[in-house]
Amino acid sequence: MQIVPTQTTDKVAWNSFIKENYPPVGAFMQTWEWGEFKKDWGKKIERFFVTDGDQLIAAFMLAEHSLPFGFSYGYLPRGPVLAKTLDQQKINAVFSFIRDWAAQKYRHLVFLRLEPPVQEEVIAELEKERFFRPDYYIQPKYNLTLDLTKPEEEILASFHSSTRSNLNRAERRGVTVTLKNHRQEINQSDFWQMAKDTISRNSGKNLYPPRTYFDSMFKILPALEDETSPDQLSIGTFYGYQHNKPAATHYVLFFGDTATYLYGASATECLKSKVTTYLHWQAAREAKARGFKYYDLGGIDEKLWPSITTFKRQFGGLEFAYVGLIDIPLQPRLYKLYNFLKKLRHLGKS
């Protein structure tokens, strides 16, 4: 078994492997374009193939996150991605090989943090190998996704009656949707104005990344309408209007079989028009028309986000669960200290 760093010329092979071997939800985080965006935003990103003889059996993107005193940990967002053909024994071997390789190559890393898209029974075996599972997670552990392979009428019929009613209400109240290029500055200005409105409604709690995050994402990711293919990560900007006045914006990522809702914002004065419900439906219809099989409405969690979870579940759909985080300590004593200090900070906030 070998772990091989990628080259720029590996972009097509990389995205092809991710597309073929990833579940419907979350694949965009391991795409080549997402890594380039993160690099532009200032993160240290490296990509690696895992091979067994002449077979490509896994791939992962590693991002370094700084810790105090010059230490760091390595994070594999929604990774590593494993070939679907691997059995439990081979999966165990891949994880153990990554651990031993990282311990030799990255002596400044305290631990590796993984988020593999695998089933729970796979992780039960890994825990015997001195791998640990934190009781929290970074990416949503549960996502809700619409199955776009069904006829449009059947998808609509699976919605809660109030959701179908809200779609009709939006049309009666003059709501329309336009797909726009995210690089138009005026569109970004509208988004940030509505984001301020959204934060105000959320009692001042800001769930958006900094503006530099969006600046890098918009610069690196191509627009959906720029003749992109499902093998390339792209972004669609869906603008909702009420009587030709900007009312809401949704940013949706497109890759592989799935369109993924990423961020949205809306104007308070237009909420009664049900523009946000209408935007989701029109984005899903656009994805279906382009041949995508799933529309991911994003994370759900009854405890953390009760109202947004209720809203999304009224679209029906499929719920996907992930195993969450797996930590591989590379320096066990420092890893224990990291967890101890993290608990202290948590107790201080409670």
What's a quick, concise take on this entry?
With 350 residues, this protein is of the alpha+beta class.
Helices and strands in order:
Layout: E1 2-5, H1 11-21, H2 32-40, E2 44-52, E3 55-66, E4 72-76, E5 81-82, H3 88-105, E6 109-114, H4 120-126, E7 142-147, H5 152-158, H6 161-172, E8 175-180, H7 185-201, H8 211-220, E9 234-242, E10 245-255, E11 258-266, H9 275-289, E12 294-299, H10 306-313, E13 318-321, E14 326-329, H11 332-349
Parallel strand pairs: 4-6, 11-12
Antiparallel strand pairs: 1-2, 2-3, 3-4, 3-5, 6-14, 7-12, 7-13, 8-9, 9-10, 10-11
Helix pairs in contact: 2-8, 6-9
Can you give a write-up of this model?
The protein is an alpha+beta fold and 350 residues long. The protein is 38% helix and 27% strand. The protein contains eleven helices and 14 strands. The chain has helices spanning 11-21, 32-40, 88-105, 120-126, 152-158, 161-172, 185-201, 211-220, 275-289, 306-313, 332-349; strands at residues 2-5, 44-52, 55-66, 72-76, 81-82, 109-114, 142-147, 175-180, 234-242, 245-255, 258-266, 294-299, 318-321, 326-329. The strands form two sheets. Strands 1, 2, 3, 4, 5, 6 and 14 form a seven-stranded mixed β-sheet that branches. Strands 8-9-10-11-12-7-13 form a seven-stranded mixed β-sheet. The longest helix is centred in the first third of the chain and has 18 residues, at 88-105. The protein is globular, with a radius of gyration of 21 Å. It starts with a strand and ends with a helix. The model has no long low-confidence stretch (mean pLDDT 90).
